[in-house]
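Please, structure for the following, as tokens.
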Amino acid sequence: MIPLSVPNLSGKEWEYIKDCLDTNWVSSVGSYVDRFEKAVAEYTGARYAVSTVNGTSALHIALLMAGVERGDLVLVPNITFVASVNSILYTGAEPVLVDIDPRTWQMDLSLLEQYLHQHTRLNNGVCQHKETKQRIRAIMPVHVLGNIGNMQQLLDLANRYHLTIIEDSTEALGTRYQGTHAGRFGLAGCFSFNGNKIITTGGGGMLVTDNEQVAKKAKHLTTQAKSDPFEYMHDDAGYNYRLVNILAAMGLAQMEQLDAFIQHKHQVNAFYRDFLRTLDGVQFQEVIPGAEPNDWLFTILHPRQQDLMGYLIQQSIQVRPFWVPMNRLPYLQSFTYVSESDFSFQVYSKGISLPCSTSISMSQLEQVKSAILRFHHEYC
């Protein structure tokens, strides 16, 4: 089986993890937590980084830092992994699902601007929904598949409507827009280090911010809001969202290889595009001027999605469909979906992710290529 996207543990992972085991620092304290946070902060250019148990918990804390409360509204794209929306629900707020741009598969900012113009107003400096009177506190752009949209346009909208930006950059470590790293455009940005991400700690996440108060409060809340170094005194309802030292050690080793991982992703992306562009009906995720994606998960649109996926699986090639749009999940159907053409469903119904691990070999890529070409020869 050629896997879709698996960890590449070719660096100092064993050495650093063994150090944790040898010194007995395997839990939530230890030098590797600080070193991993520092490495991510330096790489992204952020002043502060706070590690978490996963990307979802980082998003949850970031929303709390933005002041999101029960009954508020948060704007989020309709195509995303479900964790983005779940983190909003954890706060008691409600998602407003915004359709995507059919070219980039990012949140459609022109559609969003139209919605804000028609359905909101500023009331004492607070963006408020005209009909429901609910406060729209934040907007959560999601850098889908490591791509990134027009962040300057998003910043202009956020400033005009007094919205706090919380970036779901969980797939976008190494992605930049006009030279600025993803996660650096709003109050906070969040990354994931799940097993299939461009670097992994097995599980884990990180919140980055330039705001010192946000960083300190986020660290406090993620460590059970313990306010005394000795006594078990807690001054808030905190969360057990800490990343343990042994996983941070793995993350540090992965960070040391990140540039090489990204370079390999670029090569895989170029390989696929080179031959797939000659096939009828295949469409790619577009990259806008100024965007520098990390090419995390190579995904295409294909008119015979189900047939091609079934064929490749029979050839021992692992593939995945795109996420089901949020508005089509039963428990989210009652929330507002802002759309004119439902591009989300169109992308979902054709999307296929192809093998693109940072360790995938040229021989494996050639096998995937041959299988796809055979499918087109026999069935298209």
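The mean pLDDT is 97. The chain has two domains: 13-255, 258-379.
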